Amino acid sequence: MKRAFYTFQETQIEGMLAYQFVSKGKQGEITKIVAFEDIGNDVYNLVLVDHDVETGYLDDEKMSNNQDIAKIMATIFRIVNDFIIKFPQNSIFIQANNEIKRRLYNRIVSNNLEEILQQYYVFGVLEDESIVTFSSTETALYNALIIKK
Length: 149
Prior knowledge:
The chain is α+β, with helices and mostly antiparallel strands. Helices cover 24% and strands 38% of the residues. Strands 1, 2, 3, 4, 5, 6, 7, 8 and 9 form a nine-stranded mixed β-sheet that branches. The model has no long low-confidence stretch (mean pLDDT 92).
């Protein structure tokens, strides 16, 4: 994605490779963490959380509504790219934890599919758990996404 993005740093969180950046917007500064959880067979689950730096609390349920979603998604795209450059044999599994995020992830990939496909293969996981090539013309929402080099 050729959009503005936040600077990020590589870190470790709960034994997982992670990246940290700060979202700046309407709600102030919010520390975000993107972690990669090993779920087996060279597949890593992408985990996006808000991090309360004072308490250490990690929140994957919160919708921070900081009015910077395009910049956050561009940052996540850069993080995914960094991860895949370091670990090209790995696939990334992305599954939203609520319906709003699921629709958002599907829409963002659909809107940027041409650009994403220049670097990666993208698959969608259907309700019956079958895996198909991601299609921006598909009327059904994918339950999860898989990205690989």
